[in-house]
Amino acid sequence: MVAVVDKPPAPVKETGPVRRALGAALGDVLSCLPALMLAWLCLRIAETSHVAGAVKVSILFGPALANDLLSLLRYGFLFVLGAPLLAPIPARRWRLALLGLCWSVLLACQAGLVQYEWIAGVPLGADLFGYTRAEVATTVGGGWRVHPPLVVALLSALAVLWVALNACSRAWWPRAAARPALIAGAVSLLGFAVLPDHFAPPAAQSEASIDYLLNKTAYFADRNLAHVAGRGGAGEVGHGRGDLPWAGKDARYPFAHAERTPDTLGPLLERHPGTAPPNLVFIIVEGLGRTFSGPGARLGSFTPFLDELAGRSLYFENFLSGQGRTFGVLTTVFGSLPFGENGLAALGDRMPRHASLLSVLKAQGYRLNFYSGSNLEFDNEGKYLRQEGVDGFVSERDYGPPAQRSNEWGYPDGDLVDMALRRQGQDREQAPTVSIIQTTSMHDPFSFPDKPRYLEKVGQRLAQLGIAGNANPGYAAQREIFASILYTDDALRRYFEGAAKLPGYENTIFIITGDHRLPELPMDTRIERYHVPLIVYSPMLKAPRAVKAMSSQFDLAPSLLAYLSNNHGLQSPAQVSWLGTGLDTETSFRNLHVIPLKQTKTELSDFVSGSVYLAQGRLYALADGLLTDRAPDGKALATARSQFEGFLQANRVAARAAALAPPAVMDQLAPYRAEARELRSVALAAEGGVGVAGVRRAAAPGPDGAAMIEATMSNQSTSTSQPFVPLLVISDAGGLEVGEAAGEPQTLAPGATLKVALPARLGKLPHGTYFVSMIPSHPETGRSIGIGQYHVEMKL
Question: pLDDT tens across 348-384, in order?
Fold first, then answer.
């Protein structure tokens, strides 16, 4: 027999203390993640409650939670990378306590970012890169406030977090090992590299819906990382139209082009031979938006004086600012300039040389004055205006008793207009003048003199408008904002009453617009942020006119200089760098312009071209009133992106250039040529030039009892459209087509409109909610040859 000797078991390799500690820390992070997710849910519920009246939360709450989870997946690897910081702590309860403190700070940051979005109307991105420390202090001191429901939500989130972490420390709570935590970190890192930063379902049609879906912390991180990495979204130079302002032949001066702006204002103003060139008064009203000012204002108009003034003026109903905040208004209005990285004025002494309305008029004898009740150096406004040759300044330093400062922003609009009238009345020089008045009272925190009286006026104005303010929580919650609008409107009334008594009033042109639209009032669409009125008033005006054609603040300087050159003998530079091509004064709706829109100092992702609006990569069709609708037009999307990418590249060149046009040519002034100049389209028109707007159900049914769907089709181009057939398509909630109807072939002349009505026949389908689309289609192929209006929810 052979004796069998048992071998001793192989020794178990022990894990070192460092690996054990690191493994425990990794496991703790992964096993405690549900605590953070539950706490985050409290803040999402608070967001949902806040937007419940403006967003379809019943549909979008699930996708919003999914975006929160997507954000956690994309940034979860940071928790894994931070786990070594917990490893040196031997006691698990103290590791969880430190983890809880870090996550509490994260929740507080999320609450702060949510609060910012509620106040500013847009999520916070890389904006802080565009402001100095002093400007940030002024902004925070002048407008920050805390919503109590959000405080309750944050406290609830913190309580949930710590209770859940306490449960995590119990023996019965499942504990993760190091390997699953490392795998989760690797998956998260891969997700960060390949996954989109968010997703939006088709139901998210409005800008408020899209902002609601965003995880504010992830959005903040994504935008700042993109800014640091220098990713602005620009690509190759687009192959857009050769007559675009940034399609110059010289790559050093992409915006330089010959000055050929037509005089669209001259035919509308009386010309008195022998009179001096007119005075110009620009009134830039803080936050003035079309949503609450002028005829057809969606929220009702709270500017009764400006409404009355508009009735005897040129009133541009579909007008755009170039920026979503004040930083760019002066360079846009007076220079028609590109933006650079953070607004061209931010370059200060490094701003490229250029011809502006101010500098050209200064060189030909105009005196330039600027009036404000605020800090002249905020947003580098003072430096920019000095470079353009402004002679006289009034800022917050020039006020004294009885004027009283309202807030961090400075002195109220009533004191501002009193100061402007007093200084203008003392001006005895015979030279024509440009006066710029910039208001501030319609700005958070909305503090101004006699506030209780104006709060009462809000109720009176609501009654005049037939709005039950007490029954509408929106008006009640925003009462202070509407009161500030009424206050500024009264201040402007007083200014015009005084200006009418000043010498030279009969020879003055007044230009009133907003720097951007107030962000604190709810917005239906993203483009609402830029939708401001333009009022051009003058005693020289032949007749008032309501203008529906689109223009923007980029068109003001070119048009005013063309008018002064053609009618008063002034001269213009041979080459200019205007982005604008001149004001369009047509009474019917159209858009012949391309208009880049910079929402904040660091957010440049919006672009209008003809009948379409490109917003953060999504394409919308534009209609009268600047109503928007998603436009699934691949060709139009590609063309708009190409044009926008061309602008972005040219904008980067301009930011680094010493001049925007060859100095030798730019400094040459020439009289207005007596050549035929017409405002022509440089913009993208839908193929065929036809756009659709105003899709709705008619009040009366058709002859066979079927519901009739009405719409307006218009040709926004400068040439006759190709033949098209109005096509109505009906689909159910799942997107399945359930019916269609077609009209007779049509052709539209330039600027013409056509009212169509087509029957919505459902056959044997039950009555209920359906989605209708109206499309200009090719008579033979049936494919879309214009910009239709899609997926309008309707009960049939």
Answer: 888 999 999 999 999 999 999 999 999 888 878 889 9
Q: Which among 311, 315, 314, 331 has a CA at the least distance from the CA of 323?
A: 331
- 582 Cβ contact list (under 8 Å, min separation 6): 261, 262, 264, 551, 555, 558, 559, 562, 679
Task: Round the average pLDDT of the chain to a whole number and report it.
Answer: 86
**What does the alpha-carbon distance between residue 471 and residue 323 come to, in Å, rounded to a whole number?**
34
Question: Checking phi first, is residue 348 left (phi over 0); if not, alpha (psi -120 to 50) or beta?
Answer: left
Q: How far apart are CA 238 and CA 693, in angstroms?
A: 29
What are 747's two structure tokens? 């052709």
Angstrom distance (rounded) from CA 336 to CA 388: 13
Distance from first CA to last CA of the chain, Å, rounded?
A: 97
Q: Please list the alpha-helical segments (H only) found in 271-412.
A: 304-310, 329-335, 357-362, 381-387
Question: What is the model's pTM?
Answer: 0.80
Residue 402 preceded by cis peptide, ω within 30: yes
DSSP letter, residue 384: H
CB of 721 within 8 A of CB of 710?
no
Residue 724 to residue 747: CA distance in whole angstroms: 7
Q: H-helix or E-strand containing 26? A: helix 17-31
Dump pLDDT digits (tens) for 424-457.
Answer: 998 877 789 999 999 999 988 899 999 999 999 9
SS3 229: helix
Distance from C-alpha of 747 to C-alpha of 488, rounded to nearest angstrom: 47
What is the Cα gyration radius of the chain?
Answer: 30
Q: How many angstroms separate the Cα of 213 from the Cα of each of 44, 60, 206, 233, 518?
A: 10, 7, 11, 21, 22
Cα–Cα dist 166/178, whole Å: 21
The phi and psi torsions of 768 (rounded to 5 degrees) equal: 165, -160
- Tokens read off for 514: 């907003």
- Nearest 5 degrees, angle CA 769-CA 770-CA 771? 135
Torsion of CA 441, 404, 369, 500, to 10 degrees: 80
One-character DSSP codes across 59-115: HHHHHHHHHHHHHHHHHTHHHHHHGGGTTT--SHHHHHHHHHHHHHHHHHHHHHHHH
d(CA 741, CA 739): 7
Q: Residue 323 and residue 381: Cα distance in Å, rounded?
A: 15
Three-state SS at 326: helix
Give CA–CA dist 750/721, Å, rounded.
7
b/e per residue 353-390 (b: at least 16 CB within 10 A): ebbbbbbbbbebebbbbbbbbbbbebbbbbbbbebbbb
The confidence score (pLDDT) of residue 268 equals 97
CA torsion 70→74→78→80, rounded to 10°? Answer: 80
Is the CB of residue 576 less than 8 Å from the CB of residue 558?
A: yes
| Statement: residue 700 has pLDDT above 70 | yes
